[in-house]
Amino acid sequence: MDTWSATQYLKFEDERTRPALDLLSHVPAIEVAAAVDIGCGPGNSTELIAARFPHARLTGLDTSPAMLAAARERLPLATFIEADAATWVPDAPVDLMFANAVFQWVPDHVSVLARLIGALAPGGVLAMQVPDNLGEPSHVAMREVATSAPFATKFATPIVRDVIPPVGAYYDRLRSLTARVDVWRTTYHHVLAGPAEIVEWVKGTGLRPYLDRLGADERPAYLAAYQAAVAKAYPAQADGRVIFPFPRLFTVAVKP
Q: Which of 131, 134, 164, 236 is 20 to 30 Å from the Cα of 186, by its Cα?
């Protein structure tokens, strides 16, 4: 079932688009005839690529029909296809593969990145970023609330996601395949209205697997317990707002 919501995701469009802008700014000045936005979502990142490389043949791919519908409405001249980032391969070499916040959902994604580099055109670029926040209070609280009463029985089999590898793992795996690979980590500090906004943020992404496992009648209680945990972890600033640290890992690899 497609549980992604473009509307929910875009409640924080400016904040979600900022890492994509930062990632794109590190893509070197190359000729791009064909570009692919892997995990394009509702097209906010695809729109950035279109502005940077206006003459490129632009393709976006995602697993979510709802996200693809929103992307097609946003960018009617681009091509959008339903495909899985874990297994997708292009029909022909492309100059730019761009992936904003998708590979955190793909097991052993460093190996997938290595495979995709092989599908780049000579001199092509693979640019990706992933949230690196499984150890942050926002995500620790998801797991802790899930194992507490009355939800524990629903999560007897825990929600499992791969931990993001360290910077060196990306460098070591990709360096021999590339002319240059840059890897860095940035923590954004988003200022939000309060704990409820943090909950709304993660409802569009990391909280989805937890809510999907609960019945509609169980979700309000889980969300209330989760918001209470978030409120303790992210205290209010002097003006009543909260600061939401959000670490992300970036990689830009250039094929010889």
A: 236
CA dist., res. 4 & res. 79, Å (int): 20
- All structural domains of the chain, each given as residue ranges with its CATH number in brackets, are 6-254 (3.40.50.150)
Q: Which of 95, 96, 68 is nearest to 81 (CA)?
A: 68
Could you tell me the pLDDT band of residue 3, with boundaries at 50, 70 and 90? low
Whole-prediction pTM value?
0.91
Distance CA 100, CA 37 (A): 8
What gap in Å lies between CA 83 and CA 47, rounded to an integer? 19
CB count, 10 Å around CB of 207? 22
Pair 255, 202: CB distance under 8 Å:
no
Closest CA to 246 of 61, 44, 104: 104
Mean pLDDT in residue range 26-46 = 95
**Can you tell me the distance from the alpha carbon of 177 to that of 125, in angstroms, rounded to the nearest whole number?**
12
Reading the block at residue 3, the tokens are 């549980």
